[in-house]
Design a protein that fits this description.
31 helices; mainly alpha; single chain; about 750 residues; binds zinc ion; Neurolysin, domain 3; two-stranded antiparallel sheet; five-stranded mixed β-sheet; 7 strands
Length: about 750
């Protein structure tokens, strides 16, 4: 039951007609619900080890009846709570609510995973149908006035109940989720809240539609092939195709992607065309029939109003109340803490690029040009090639999948937490490439089941992710079943699986999430494992990435798959230097986008900027915070910032950076305490990884570290704490390093 603040916007969309009708809906549904036939594989808990879903018995047609029976069952369970003539107490209300919905959880977790990693048309179709129904179901519970009255009664009595700390937290969370949904409001306010939610959903849908059109209409059309100099033959063919699709025969169309920066900017030699492409990117959605700014202006106003109804000063405050950061001020303080060093890093990178431009101009005997945003990728690509390029084919034999997994990923988990992994081939999987490992604790006791689904398939979502098939819960007597998904290209049968350094990073990252799930040791399912806020959930995973680069782990896994020879030092140094290349730019564009996101969502309804003022509002926010630096534009401008206006991550763009601050700070703690040791692993396991959300994450971190998170280690990790390290001048390095130490300490 992952409920984050980002989720309530969507959930509430389907709250129309609720909550007054909720009880009635519950009764009808409960009365009319068919019972699930016993041969449906979800009808009873799985009898397989760890409650692993019986994949060999599950058919597509089993899901819908199981979902329907699962929702009906949970509504019956909730009705039994509200009908209980006994006065509300923790056991008959909170605990009963936590126990409810077992069948629905079983079918939902299996469906979500299979639909993401091994989908087909039937599952796709069912997903579209079932998501709104699941959202309405959640609302029927969260906005049920009778249920809220009981939860609230227990909540008001909480100080006298002598609850253990986990139970106390469960009650706090249940109450908080219902309050966030608006359960405590008088009817008039509820009705206005519902109207706001509906309008917000409509505005977000309109934004997505306009943006799609704006991106499409913004494609840059070229009628002279010579202008495309620098693009590959495949890219030119794709551009010709794109033009033909637009009815422009004999021309070329450069299609826009989501971010400010466009991939072709790195390749196009024609500077005027680069500028055209850049301007098309940043101006999409401004004016004309695809305008998004009017939608944004209205969205900001309605979000601000909704926050006020819920008792918050602004939308950012409402969203962040559920997160580790807690307040917009805390996010701003973290962003401001990173700004000087990140900006200095970007300025150093800009100086290197300007020098490169000057040298090229001098060599060609023409006047030099001032570095512009549309030049950055083009010249940084050339500097990268000159200084950091390595032959990926030369490196890959040192990163063979099984070596990386057993001698790197599993090895680090063994050294830190004492875990051992034993492959099982006797359990049914949903796809023959999926591998199953039983995970044992240091004392030999069973801990978890780990599924590794590493290969790309046409019916699998892109990217990499972790999820649960079964959540850990002592109350329910469940150990976790966890899956890691990657998208590694599968080689022909009999050939080794050789990885890039990025893919190795993906393995460590996803294992970090998996460990957060596997090491969970809590009573309540809803508080277990990765059921944590957005700005915390990426903390264990980004932390675990550090072992990929740690000499003690790297030396253990980076060996030639045929000869066993260790990776050559010079090659390794090039790989590591390439990782840190251009990080000043990368971090600055993200800090800018995060700052724009928070600033826009901190307005009150009467102070929300008008459509025509949004660009100026953004610039002002960047100037005030010292982030405005002309050659590095924000990763997204408001007019095409889909995360925050088209999706539900408003006031949430900072989250990944926040979690990484925690991760790198924890990495620094590990180094201060001796690195890869069981003692260090035990501390992290005890204080963070086993705790789920049994306490608020900010408290967990403070208890682990004894202070608030610090930004210095993140800057060090990416080489941004070091002043003056020009890409092609290594002499200044040793001096710069000693200075960096004192800076980070201060
Ligand atoms: Zn992640």
């Amino acid at each position: 039951m992952r409920i984050t603040s980002a989720a309530w916007t969507t959930i509430a969309v389907y709250a129309l007609g609720l909550p007054i009708a909720a009880a009635a809906v519950a009764e009808t549904a409960a009365a009319a619900a068919p019972t699930l036939p016993a041969d449906n594989p979800f009808a009873a808990p799985s009898s397989l080890p760890y409650g692993m879903p019986p994949f060999d018995r599950i058919k597509d047609s089993d899901f819908l009846p199981a979902f329907e029976a699962g929702m009906a069952e949970q509504l019956r369970e909730v009705k039994a709570i509200t009908d209980n003539p006994a006065p509300p107490n923790f056991d008959n209300t909170s605990l009963a609510l936590e126990r409810s919905g077992a069948l629905l959880t079983r079918v939902r977790e299996t469906f979500t995973n299979l639909n993401a990693s091994n989908s087909d048309d039937a599952l796709d179709k069912l997903d579209g149908e079932i998501q709104p129904r699941l959202a309405a179901h959640k609302d029927a519970i969260n906005l049920d006035p009778a249920l809220y009255a009981r939860v609230d009664a227990v909540y008001r009595d909480r100080k006298h109940l002598l609850l253990d700390s986990e139970s106390y937290q469960l009650l706090m969370r249940q109450h908080r989720i219902m309050v966030s949904a608006g359960a405590q409001l008088p009817e008039a306010a509820k009705s206005r809240l519902r109207a706001c939610n509906t309008e917000i959903a409509e505005l977000m849908a309109r934004f997505r539609l306009s943006l799609l059109k704006a991106a499409n209409d913004g494609a840059v059309v070229v009628d002279d092939a010579q202008q495309l100099d620098g693009l590959s033959a495949a890219d030119i063919a794709a551009a010709a195709d794109a033009a033909t699709k637009r009815g422009l025969k004999g021309e070329w169309a450069l299609v826009l992607i989501n971010t400010t920066t466009q991939p072709f900017l790195a390749e196009l030699r024609n500077r005027a065309l680069r500028e055209r492409l850049y301007r098309a990117s940043v101006n999409r959605g401004i004016g004309g029939s695809d305008d998004t700014t009017a939608t944004i202006a209205r969205l900001l106003r309605v979000r601000a109003e909704r926050a006020r109804i819920l008792g918050f000063p602004n939308h950012a405050a409402a969203m962040l109340d559920e997160e580790t950061a807690g307040t917009p001020a805390a996010v701003e303080a973290m962003l401001r803490g990173l700004t000087p060093a990140v900006r200095a890093g970007a300025e150093r990178e800009a100086a290197v690029l300007q020098k490169f431009i000057d040298q090229q101009a001098a060599a060609a005997g023409r006047p030099s040009e001032k570095l512009q945003p549309w030049d950055w990728d083009f010249y940084s690509q050339q500097v990268r090639k000159a200084s950091y390029d390595y032959d990926a084919a030369e490196a890959k034999p040192f990163f063979e999948l099984n070596h990386v997994l057993n001698d790197g990923v599993f090895y680090a988990a063994h050294e830190l937490y004492g875990l051992s992994f034993s492959e099982r081939t006797d359990l049914p999987v949903y796809q023959p490439d999926v591998r199953v490992f039983e995970v044992f604790d240091a004392d030999g006791k069973p801990l978890a089941l780990f599924l590794a689904d590493y290969f790309a398939r046409s019916n699998k979502q892109g990217g990499a992710w972790m999820d649960n098939f079964v959540d850990q819960s002592r109350l329910l007597g469940q150990l976790p079943v966890i899956v890691n998904n990657l998208n590694i290209a599968k080689p022909p049968a009999g050939e080794p699986v050789l990885l890039t350094f990025d893919e190795v990073n993906g393995l460590f990252h996803e294992m970090g999430h998996a460990l957060h799930g596997m090491l969970s040791n809590v009573r309540y399912r809803s508080l277990s494992g990765t059921n944590t806020p957005n700005d915390f959930v990426e903390y264990p995973s980004q932390f675990n990435e550090m072992w990929q680069r740690e000499p003690a782990v790297l030396a253990h896994y980076a060996r030639h798959y045929q000869t066993g020879a260790p990776i050559p030092v010079a090659l390794l140094q090039k790989i590591l230097a390439a990782v840190n290349f251009n990080q000043g730019y990368g971090y600055l564009e993200r800090l800018e986008a995060a700052t724009i996101d928070i600033a826009l969502h901190e307005v009150t309804p009467d102070k929300a900027p008008a459509a025509k003022d949004i660009a100026a509002f953004e610039q002002d926010a960047l100037r005030r915070t010292g982030l405005a630096f002309e050659p590095v534009p924000p990763r997204y401008h408001a007019n095409y910032f889909r995360h925050i206006f088209g999706d539900d991550y408003s006031a949430g763009y900072y989250a990944y950076t926040w979690a990484e601050v925690l991760a790198r700070d924890t990495g620094a703690w590990m180094h201060q305490h001796g690195g890869l040791t069981r003692a260090n692993g035990e501390v992290l396991r005890d204080k963070i990884l086993s705790r789920g959300r049994t306490r608020e994450p900010s408290d967990l971190f403070r208890d682990f570290y004894g202070r608030e998170p610090a930004v210095g280690p993140l800057l060090e990790y990416y080489g941004l704490a070091q002043p003056a390290e020009p890409a092609m001048d290594t002499k200044a390095k040793s001096k710069a390093k000693s200075k960096a130490k004192s800076k980070a300490a201060g």
